[in-house]
Input
Amino acid sequence: MKFADVRSKRSTGDRPDTHPAEGLAASIRGLTVSLERDGARSEVLRGVDLDVGRGEIVGLVGESGSGKSVLALSMMGLLPQASRPRTHGSIEIAGVDVLNSAPSELRDLRRHELGVIFQDPMTSLNPTMRVGTQISEVSHDRETSLQLMTSVGIPDPELRFRVFPHELSGGLRQRVMTAIAVAGRPSLIIADEPTTALDVTVQAQVLELLADLRDTFGCSVVLITHDLAVAAQIADRIAVLYAGRVAELGPVAEMLRRPTHPYTVGLLSSRLSLETPRNLPLTTLKPETATPAERMLGCAYHSRCPLADEKCSREQPPLAPVALGADATLLHERSCWRSVAQVQALAHSRAPVDTVLRSESRQLSEAGESVRLDDVHVRFVLKSGARHREEVHALRGVDLTVGAGESLSIVGESGSGKSTLLRVVAGLIPPTSGAVHVGNKGAQMVFQDAGSSLTPWLTVGELLRERLRPLRLGSAEVQRRLDLALTTIGLPAGIANARPSELSGGQKQRVALARATVIPPSVLLCDEPTSALDASLAASVLNLIRELRSAFAMTVIFVTHDLSVARLMGDQIAVMTQGQIVEMGPATDVIERPEHPYTRSLLASVPTIEVTTS
Amino acid sequence: MLKFIVRRLGSSLVLILVLSAIIFLLQEITPGDPVRAYIGLNASPEAVAAARESLGLNSPLPLRYLHFLGRLLHGDLGVSFRTHRSVVSDLGDFLPATAELVTVAFVFALVLGILFAVSGALRWWGTSVLRGLLLVLATGPSFLLALGGIVLFYSRLGWLPGGDRGANASGPTGFLMIDSLLHGDVAQWATALQHLVLPALALAIAPAIAIGRILRASLETTMNADHVRTARAKGLSEGAVLGGHVVRNSIGPALSMAGLQLGFMFAGVVVVEQIFSWPGIGNYLARSIPVSDFPAIAAVTLVLGTIYIIANALVDLLQAAADPRLNL
Output
């Protein structure tokens, strides 16, 4: 196998021949889907061609809005009726014409040929039905269900059979979801972001499980993800989707070693890894400037593409095979007008696609520390229901000092206490015992879900004015501060009249940052502010936080589950687990010479793209 | 689960005690002399003093409350000043009629509420007509509905009787519709039903809308939930999706609304029973209030309050049974 070398964390084993010509699990031809949203109809998928071979794992990669989830729903025949879907083209799975079959035929198809794993196992499992029953709905008998639970790696299946989903950990829930997906012995499993809601260590296990299932049951897998590295872990082929079209499609090794579409190049270069230079601004893709109508005309990517010329904005490039030399056994296709040589020159230049200049002049104020925690403990009493009282020791004696102007990244998995620690510093949770000191200008916080942290009925301007009100400034001064804050954050002044619902995800997070820094605080607290954003947007928000930090000489405490982000955002990294800081030190030391075994296991689970040239 | 039941029932008991204390205190501070009400305005001062003593009205307050509780526990709710009969036997006469009326009204409210909730999903024109009609009717207060019902179905059309239960209960349950069947008297059963329809509908319409709205909203939310998408992805039929994955997850809010509405219905019977001359406790209460018949008022209040508390405790238990996340 030619591309075994990129599957760094898996043994390749004996896998079925994955050549698509040798029988197909699914065949999609010219698929166009349009959906109605708020009365406006838009084409979400535009002429998608995709084959999934028997026993093949196809990674479907794209950012939010690329249409990857709609493609998954189309394949299942489950497009939301409320959106009045209109479809053209064809989808054939196991001899069934998915787009033109009766509901009962589609039900049979789903029951016998398809297995599905959704993103969030907490909401995707029925909260009021026992786990075993949910599996048995598909497998139809208890014995088979127990066997399935064993084969997806659920310990004590007899015991777990009778529990409800909320009594399981996130990883086990996703295993239950997986057991349901394989219970009908499907020929095709569709996994829609199956690891996005999970911790890195669990993510690695679930990916491993998916690959094992393919090997054991011989089923095909469509793995949908926004992260190229996740797809690269187990996929045989990758399809990169952009604005409802396949931008590039090919074998994993080829795609990673020699990407032939500028968007793939952009995705690869804007991906944050443990090797991303720390002292340079992060590479971001150019933001979209074209209107949807303009994008429909030519190549959808043209307004962001560094190589685009006039033709790209006029004519839509077809998906065509790439001539890459005689050794390519699997078809490698792309839709781009520019030559492969040009694209590869772009890839090899390693030059940032679009660089935001940043002044690295950090004025470390002489005054010592900005945040100090002495032996902080936090205990919660969880009252779940009337009779059960459970005490959670969220922080167990945390000592922490962060100097003024310094930045600290706190890394840990869900339940490690990292968010609690942040809330204690913000003053949102009083410590059960211990002392908390924060610099005299106080703390401000930026949350993960910017959308829900902005009051929906206030305009951006009102949100910012609200923060300035205690200063009792004149209206001219308020306006000046407001304009300044928006300029600093890189948003046009006109956005002051917009409400949060009119903003994009990246803009919302920028507004949240503007609100936090319109009066510069002593310390800016960031709780996973980028984990809900696409890679390129995330990078631009991270750049912004770094800029704000040097502009205002603020202390930044950045909480994340992602070690590569932690390494980029913190001078120091603190690793937390079970309410304690188990390791803390300069970022490079922690990453390159981890001392605590927990840090090492976190590092080992980070999905990486290792391109080895053979 | 058992522990949860015990706790929930325990807290209901505490609530009932609090209710009894409040009733007792109200009785204490209300102007109007119960003794005068009992023995008449023209009685001599000596007779008043003697009656006061014999009614136990001279002991200190906490002691009188304990007495009050003690008598409650023995099923002694005192003697009505108005009817001069034991309040318990009065209640025995009037409560079954009210219980039957409210039970039938509650069933109507549930049926109409469920129809209201699913009318959008059912593709039959009649359901949306029904929904519109219910919405219009619910804008009127229950006494107006009752009067309108009498004018239309009794005076004009003559389809339904205009009041009364149609017969006297002859035991053993006090529910005419059950007793008549026990006695094999189908004609009486039909009469009883005819007499029940109008007052029960007048009571049921507003609660039906309240229950229906809540149920409709939670059904809609659940239908769009991720786990319902999972159920469809399993290839289950729409019936299995609804029965297995939707109903249980959306019943909770409707249950608590139904519990509240059951309580309101018992309060609403005072007006409706007056209009339909229904021989129930609403009517009894309406006649006791003008003459400050405290034992009667206190007893009715206590009974209604207790029913309300028990109904809500039952709702909590049902909700816990429906949603395992609540009691774990």
